[in-house]
Amino acid sequence: MPQACTPAFMHRLPLVEQFDIGFAGNTDRGGHKKRSAMLDKLSAGYTVSIRNNVRNNISNFYSKCRLVFGMNFEYNRFLYTSNRFFVAIGCGAQYLCEWFPGIELLVENHKHVVWFKTEEELFQRVDQYLRDSKARNIIRSNAEQLAHQKHTYRMRIQNMMDIIEGRTEKFYGFIEN
Question: Can you identify the CATH homologous superfamily of domain 19-150?
Fold first, then answer.
């Protein structure tokens, strides 16, 4: 079962956007070479802020970013994503992430998040959504609403209990449920 968000402290704050792109997480460990290289390329053309120690103030940081970037380890497994995915959408960020198998079951592209499959597509989406604040705000709102409805730890625990107690075999976090 994927990770989740905590709405009590993961939500959009009314702050002035200071950065084109924000990233919270590691860039220097083994499986992050591709992520580090991509952040370097983004930093060459945009105002990028990279933070690795913002857990207690993540809503504050993400609310200051027009876009929030995400890229997993250098392997794609079905429904594998870090908790960054759920934290970002829970914070009402416009999350721009690399596609991973099964993402379509969790969110809709250009409605809740924006995903990319190639470097060229990433830069096209960055340019597109930096220019279109109205679309950014709609995606943010949709993301936060979906995260708080389907991707909270309370929902995950209830889902696990329902599975254990035989009330369901389904995962409640899919958008079609």
Answer: Glycogen Phosphorylase B; (3.40.50.2000)
Contact by Cβ (8 Å): 38, 71: yes
What is the three-state SS of the chain? Answer: CCCCECCCCCCCCCCCCCEEEEEECCCCCHHHHHHHHHHHHHHHHCCEEEECCCHHHHHHHHHCEEEEEECCCCCCCCCCCCHHHHHHHHCCCCEEEECCCCHHHHCCECCCEEEECCHHHHHHHHHHHHHCHHHHHHHHHHHHHHHHHHCEHHHHHHHHHHHHCCCCCCCCCCCCC
Q: Are strands 48-51 and 65-70 parallel, antiparallel or unpaired?
A: unpaired
Q: Using DSSP bridges, classify how beta strands 95-98 and 19-24 pair: parallel, antiparallel or unpaired.
A: unpaired
How many whole angstroms separate alpha carbon 111 and alpha carbon 138?
8
Residue pLDDT, tens place only, 117-161: 999 999 999 999 999 999 999 999 999 999 999 999 999 999 999
pTM over 0.70: yes
